[in-house]
Design a protein that fits this description.
Blueprint (H helix, E strand, L loop, with lengths): L10 E2 L3 H4 L13 E4 L2 E3 L19 E5 L2 E5 L5 H14 L4 E5 L11 H7 L4 E4 L1 H22 L9 E2 L3 E2 L5 E4 L2 E6 L11 E4 L4 E9 L11 H12 L5 E6 L6 H21 L5 H8 L12 H19 L2
Parallel strand pairs: 5-6, 6-7, 7-9, 13-14
Antiparallel strand pairs: 1-8, 2-3, 3-4, 4-5, 10-11, 11-12, 12-13
């Protein structure tokens, strides 16, 4: 295990997982879409990691500044990270000088490896709780999860953690562009950061929101997630980049917030009627028609109701 803490990214080797022969590049052709001046997003397929998508299903973004490129969430593997760098090179010859990782779930940040190998002096920013979890084993766990779900399509990926901690209110200026960090307690996880570019009126939401796709909330908080999305909506941004799904206007945050509110408020109402979570589901489903066409709605709505039930129950005591 090689750990170069704070000076360089943390690189953790997962035994045979890291030593495995590197899997081929991504087969599908992905294109970076410009969503604001010098701001680009590569929209991944909706759905969970699979052999078909080779693990790519998040929304990596990059911002071209006068001093270099800033990448947000470079994806789930070294293969995805290399695809992101290839897209960067189509738009600029400038180096990548910084990366932001929005949270600990590996589909968003295992692509750090590709950036670090190409630009060893890159600053990789993340919330300190994310860095702690990666260093305490979450990184290796995510390597194994991605290898399993993709049937080896992410082989060759190594854990390269962040090397610079950031928390709420921190503003980093790179090449004349301000990158403001937003974090207000537990949300999708307890280590989510959103990245606001005030001058460009763009906010990267991470997995605080999916748009057209449901997200797991096993590590999260309904009330916290709602609070953070309200903060993003009040930020002055006009372009909202969700962790999964298309970039859009405020609706990319508001629609997911409304779903969380509908789940939490409905569960609270029926909880007060002394119904259990499995009794609540059939009563609540008719209120959720607006979201029933979203990817993974059927597979996740039951767990969302159960998790909201636990959160409502905890709030009562």
């Amino acid at each position: 295990m090689r750990i170069l803490l704070w000076l360089f990214p943390v690189v953790l080797f997962a035994g045979q997982a890291a030593a495995a022969e590197k899997a081929p590049p991504l087969k599908a052709a992905y294109v970076a879409k410009q969503v604001a001046d010098n701001v680009f997003v590569i929209h991944g397929p909706k759905g969970i990691p699979s052999p078909e998508n080779q693990g790519f299903m998040n929304n990596p973004g990059f911002v071209i500044t006068s001093d270099g490129v800033v990448v947000v969430d470079p994806g789930s593997s070294v293969q995805v990270g290399e695809m992101v760098l290839a897209q960067v090179r189509k738009h600029t010859g400038k180096p990548v000088v910084a990366v932001f990782n929005t949270h600990v779930h590996g589909d968003h940040w295992l692509g750090n490896q590709a950036v670090f190998e190409a630009f060893p002096e890159v600053k990789i920013y993340a919330h300190p709780k994310m860095m702690e979890r990666v260093e305490n084993g979450a990184g290796i766990q995510w390597l194994e999860i991605m290898l399993d779900l993709t049937k080896g399509a992410t082989a060759g990926t190594e854990v390269v953690s962040a090397n610079a901690a950031v928390d709420d209110g921190r503003e980093i200026k790179i090449g004349g562009v301000a990158f403001r960090v937003l974090h207000d307690g537990q949300s999708h996880t307890d280590n989510d950061i959103m990245i606001l570019l005030p001058q460009k009126k763009v906010v990267f939401l991470g997995d605080n929101a999916g748009y057209g796709r449901m997200l797991r909330l096993n590590d999260g908080s309904f009330q916290g997630n709602i609070r953070n999305l309200n903060r993003a909506l009040a930020s002055g941004a006009t372009v909202f980049v969700p962790g999964h799904g298309p970039t859009a206007g405020p609706e990319a945050a508001a629609d997911y917030r409304d779903y969380l509110q509908a789940i939490y408020a409905g569960v609270k109402e029926f909880f007060e009627d002394d119904l259990s979570d499995f009794e609540i589901k059939p009563k609540l489903l008719p209120r959720l028609g607006r979201w029933q066409g979203w990817v993974d709605f059927d597979s996740l709505v039951g767990s969302h109701i159960s998790l909201a039930y636990l959160e409502v129950e905890a709030a009562e005591f």
